[in-house]
Amino acid sequence: MSSLEMLSLAGNRFSGKLPHLSNTSKIEFLDLSGNAFSGNISPHIGTLPKSMQLSLSKNKLTCEIPEALSSCKNKFSGEVPTKL
């Protein structure tokens, strides 16, 4: 799958921790919205390509918002970083 550019796994009721998003350098669009992912977002999210569109909305994420992400519809706790 070295040429995979778009991947949508939206609305599949996947649960558990978010998968580690390594080896995604060629993916331009990754949609993980509408599932039941919970827990933390890895700080490594900031190492993803800046041009990648990543959707994590409508999950059950409960961690602080990493500075690398903008707002989305989740159950984040903590303060919104001032850099957003």
Automatic annotation (TrEMBL):
It is found in: Cell envelope. InterPro entries: Leu-rich_rpt (IPR001611), LRR_dom_sf (IPR032675), PGIP (IPR051848). Its main location: other. SUPFAM superfamilies: L domain-like. Pfam families: LRR_1 (PF00560). This is Uncharacterized protein. The lineage of its organism: Eukaryota, Viridiplantae, Streptophyta, Embryophyta, Tracheophyta.
